[in-house]
């Protein structure tokens, strides 16, 4: 691999045989239509530190092969290529390096980058635009009955919130009697917002903010009474899965509880198979996302739900800073799953 002084990989993409382009495009996974609008560029991956980039790419490689990852990196900054290379298993590195200098067309490059960046949209959102993500989640009010029901498990207890984001569930736990909350979040930007909110809130018991994720909770074994995750834990290993559940079990005391708040519809069966019980609370009225202003609503809906024309149409005609979950096409935050640790 030859890296030029400007920090890009050399090579010629204009003389690729059409058959190779056809084979390359045919080998790529199908690109699913997403409801978000993705503004990120490949260079935005440089925001991740080495540990978190490797964590993220380990999961992406289940979807995009190392060879296809090399196609994404054609013409990328040398620093990013080196970081990606170190994240790959040693047996995959030679093929990755070979593909970097092998001719490929701009169509293949753009298609693979599109796939990669869409896979990383939410991680890039957490790291690059945490304030915008906070605008979104601040309006996604949980059903009040969730923490009312959890209160007996929270009062005077030590609680872990993994994938804490900007603290939505962490502060709810405090308000319902938790003695101490460990808020674990990998994104530095979201941790910064969480700390700012904690420091500005009066009469709040200790909320300890630290870096970590589902696979790496920085707590000792059996150190919390309740471990929870709100709209973060999923069945796939990229953000939970078997390894994440094992880590939650590890840090939760025997007799304690693991709670997954607002689980995805497609994860309910997976959770049930592992002993979780499902609870859905009745909604007396339609649940909505309530933004601070119409401008905030438009900004968030354009970014996170811009692929749903009906959502944009609703905001334009409603002239209110709120939008029903039903218009966005997914379940409202009125349910949770729980598991007692034995």
Task: Supply database-style keywords.
single chain; 9 strands; alpha/beta; globular
Low-confidence stretches: 1-15
Task: Describe the sheet with the most strands.
Answer: 7 strands, mixed
Helix residue percentage: 40-55%
Q: Over the alpha carbons, how many angstroms does the gyration radius reach?
A: 22 Å
Structural class: alpha/beta
> Which range does the strand content fall in?
5-15%
Strands ordered across the widest β-sheet = 3-2-1-4-5-9-6
Describe what you observe in this structure.
With 342 residues, the protein is α/β, with parallel strands linked by helices. Helices cover 45% and strands 14% of the residues. It has 16 helices and nine strands. The protein has helices at 18-27, 50-60, 66-72, 78-87, 93-101, 106-119, 121-128, 130-139, 144-154, 168-175, 188-200, 241-251, 268-273, 294-304, 309-318, 325-328; strands at residues 158-162, 180-184, 207-210, 224-230, 252-261, 277-280, 288-290, 322-324, 335-340. The strands form two sheets. Strands 3-2-1-4-5-9-6 form a seven-stranded mixed sheet. Strands 7-8 form a two-stranded antiparallel sheet. Helix 12 links the parallel strand 4 and strand 5 (252-261). The protein is globular, with a radius of gyration of 22 Å. The chain starts with 17 loop residues before the first helix and ends with a strand.
